[in-house]
Amino acid sequence: MATALDSIQATTAERLIDKHARAITDLRISITDRCNYKCVYCRTGNEGAVYAELPIADYLRMARVFVGLGIEKIRLTGGEPLLRRGLLEMIRELSGLRTLDAAPLDLALTTNGHLLEEMAGPLRDAGLTRITVSMDAVDAEKFARITRVPGSYERVLRGIRAAKRAGLDPVKVNCVLLRGFNEDQIVRFAQFSREEGVIVRFIEFMPLEEDRLWTPESVVSLKEIVAALGTYRPVVRMAPNAASETAVRYTFDDGVGEIGIIAPVTQAFCGHCSRVRLTSDGKIRTCLFSQSDHDLYGVMQRGGSDDDMVAFIRRTIEKKEARHHIGEPDFLKPSRSMVHIGG
Fold first, then answer.
1. Which of 2, 27, 61, 170 has its CA 20 to 30 A from that of 75?
2. What domains appear along the chain, each with residue ranges and CATH number?
């Protein structure tokens, strides 16, 4: 029986390629901008925020159109996606999609881990392929100060272990580093990777926070991270898994543990970017640091067909920026903060 995806693929012979000859194969979909944490480097902590969410069916329609254009990987983000009703049903639907090469979709999710202990098994059963947990300290007191939620560290740790038991392995743990804030956790995270059997990834702090506190001096660079790791054990650089991989990968001299470093500030990887984002209110963002959104949901609201959406997506991808300009005199912070774009 023919499906909606079949009809989309029949009318989209060409994959998404931007004007810089980069193939767009990765889509991140924020399904909510609500979050149960108020991390100090992300949210202001102010009450009374207005949140944006669309019906799950609308995200699914947009996802199917993107897959028909050559998307091979979808990552569900937020906010905190585990807060979203209908998440498991959405994952079941997405896990049934096939790429243009008839391969299963690579389906991942990023979470703060607070609800993961209860959700890990159902997520795997629904068809989730991989999971990443955001975790910015391996210390209960410091972690609670970061998240502004008491008892949060223990819950996240249990969630990570539950994800491993459920078969969402290897689990990745992301840590955003801020100078004077949590760079003392680098060696502890190295030990955590080795002891818990997870991949730890350090991320350079980017100017995407609501409070607009970012400065170049707040960034803990890739070189500094590698040097800190070397005080613990000699590090060995690993080969990338793919040309478009964002993390520079390392292990230790005995081959135990894996550390990735994502360095968009000091070692930008824009030249091989394969990613596009869909915000929780249905807008395409071609770069984290874009100054504008492209309202795909608006096309749907106006009664647009799937072919109309395909044309809109192609025009939007054509505008994808060559690179960001962090640290340059003409750099402008993006029009929306990270929590409203999607992690």
1. 2
2. 4-9+16-341 (3.20.20.70)
Q: With 0-12 CB in 10 A as exposed, 13-18 as middle and 19+ as buried, what is 47? A: exposed
- pLDDT bin (cut points 50, 70, 90) of residue 13 is low
**Number of Cβ within a 10 Å radius of residue 103:** 9
* Residue 271, number of CB atoms within 10 A of its CB: 10
Pairing between β-strand 199-204 and β-strand 172-177 as defined by DSSP bridges: parallel
What digits encode the pLDDT tens for the residues 140-154?
Answer: 999 998 888 898 999
At a CB cut-off of 8 Å and minimum separation 6, what does 303 contact? Answer: none
- The half-sphere exposure of 224 on its side-chain side, counting CA atoms within 13 A, is 17
| pLDDT digit string, tens, across residues 151-185 | 899 999 999 999 999 999 889 999 999 888 899 99
Q: How far apart are CA 143 and CA 148, in angstroms?
A: 8
Instruction: Label each residue of 52-119 as H, E or C.
Output: CCCCHHHHHHHHHHHHCCCCCEEEEECCCHHHCCCHHHHHHHHHCCECCCCCECEEEEEECCCCHHHH
Residue indicated by tokens 């350090």? 202
Q: Which SS3 state, helix, strand or coil, does residue 307 take?
A: helix
